[in-house]
Specification:
The complex is a heterodimer of chains A (47) and B (389). Chain A has 47 residues and is mostly helical. Chain A contains 1 helix and no strands. The radius of gyration of chain A is 19 Å and the shape is rod-shaped. The chains are: A mainly alpha (47), B mainly alpha (389).
Chain lengths: 47, 389
């Protein structure tokens, strides 16, 4: 059920709020995916 | 295509016979198209002025030819020289891809002699389409010049080869700039049709979607193309190229996987910004999910598994899968989800001559690719220029 929006302010607050939460999820998920992707790469020795 | 020994070499190979028949049909359809007009051979109408000649030949052609700029950027701008063996095949594919895009455009636009008008006589500088036309015109020229060293080596024109070698870096940079511009602008064209394109595919960020998807489309095309070349033209590949192509598959597969994961995330964020969640529960939403999960999300994970396992075969198959996904995306945007509100009897479906013309153009590309790859130093290093590959 879609919430009722009375003003543009309400609509933007709602959609932007969800978008920011999804960006936070992406910021966590993408580095984890990168770790999975490169998990078996040969590690460079730094010593 | 067959691999025959010199003793049994014949012109009548299955590849030649089938492509010959298709080209003959294509020539007849070309005559019909230009003699009878669009109405004589296509199902286009006022509601659907763009069919598969734009949706497939142009949209998919440009996206899949992105391997040229992606490989050049990887090798020359980011300095990853281990991918150098992929540069010439990628540039050849891009050159043929763009040349055939322009060739196919003539079928849709008509009156080929007026094709240079928008560039030289009547510039529509307020139109995104003008920017696309200008970029494609300039980039095709750049690709011709980038491809020319292989032709000069084949013809043994040493002086011309030397001169073009001096300006190659300028060409690479110019080519990347032009590609970046028009790959995104092809998406930006659709900004003008918010009421015609389904909201799940329409977005204010569609230009960004087109640009990012073109990068992994190009990478996948380079991997997929090498798997085909290794199968059908393996006698033309030298050992060094064969070994290096495995690095290309692993490196490009890894990059494509991560890019696809990022692309999926920005698509979801795009849905949130436009508040399009309600459409996901509809039949159109199901079709959108098929594209996003079936042809972006899953290939990204399978690419990652292929890279982790160092499974080249799996990466090559995933590359083919991703290429199909890009074709599906471009067809969805330009044809399938376009005019989605119209009743079914007013929707567009390509006619048989339209489909055959597209098959003819693809066949033409394959025949020219085979002609060039079997004669010029594309898949092997020329003995006089061993370091330039």
């Amino acid at each position: 059920m879609e919430p009722d929006y009375n003003t543009l302010q309400e609509f933007i607050t709602h959609t932007k709020g969800i978008a920011y939460l999804l960006i936070a999820v992406a910021l966590v998920a993408l580095p984890l995916f990168w770790r999975f992707l490169t998990g078996r790469d040969d590690k460079k020795k730094t010593f | 295509m067959t691999q025959s020994t010199p003793r049994e070499k014949t012109v009548l190979t299955p590849f030649n016979v089938i492509s010959g028949i298709i080209i003959l049909i294509g020539v007849i359809l070309t005559i019909l198209r230009f003699a009878k007009g669009l109405g004589g051979v296509t199902n286009l109408d006022d509601n659907n002025p763009w069919g598969i000649w734009i949706g497939f030949d142009l949209m998919c052609g440009v996206a899949l030819a992105a391997g040229g700029y992606v490989t050049c950027a990887t090798c020359y701008i980011f300095g990853l020289k281990k991918f150098k063996c992929a540069v010439r095949p990628a540039i050849l594919t891009a050159f043929l891809g763009y040349a055939l895009v322009v060739f196919a455009l003539n079928y849709d636009v008509g009156r080929p002699w007026r094709l240079p008008y928008p560039i030289f006589l009547s510039q529509g500088t307020s139109s995104v389409l003008f920017e696309v036309a200008l970029c494609v015109f300039l980039y095709l020229t750049v690709l011709l010049l980038e491809f020319s060293p292989a032709a000069f080596e084949w013809l043994d024109w040493k002086r011309a080869r030397h001169i073009i070698g001096k300006v190659s870096m300028v060409l690479v940079i110019f080519g990347i700039i032009l590609s970046t511009l028009h790959q995104s602008s092809l998406g930006a064209i659709f900004l003008i049709v918010p009421s015609k394109l389904h909201p799940l595919w329409y977005s204010g960020y569609i230009a960004v979607y087109f640009f990012i998807s073109s990068i992994f489309a190009g990478m996948s095309m380079v991997i997929f193309e090498h798997s085909l070349v290794a199968r059908f033209l393996h006698d033309k590949i030298d050992k060094e190229h064969d070994i290096e192509s495995q690095n290309v598959a692993l490196g490009f597969g890894k990059a494509a996987s991560f890019l696809m994961a990022g692309y999926l995330m920005i698509q979801v964020i795009g849905i949130a910004i436009d508040n399009d969640w309600k459409y996901l529960g509809t039949r159109w939403g199901l079709w959108f999910l098929v594209e996003m999960i079936g042809f972006v999300g899953l290939p990204a994970v399978v690419y990652a598994i292929g890279v982790r396992e160092r499974n080249i075969k799996l990466i090559q198959r995933t590359a083919g899968w991703t290429v199909l996904g890009i074709i599906l995306n471009r067809l969805n945007v330009s044809i399938i989800a376009f005019n989605w509100q119209l009743p079914l009897n007013q929707r567009y479906f390509p006619s048989f001559p339209e489909i055959m013309t597209t098959v003819f153009i693809i066949t033409l590309g394959l025949v020219i690719f085979k002609f060039i790859a079997t004669r010029m130093p594309i898949l092997y290093a020329h003995p006089d220029y061993p370091d330039d590959h």
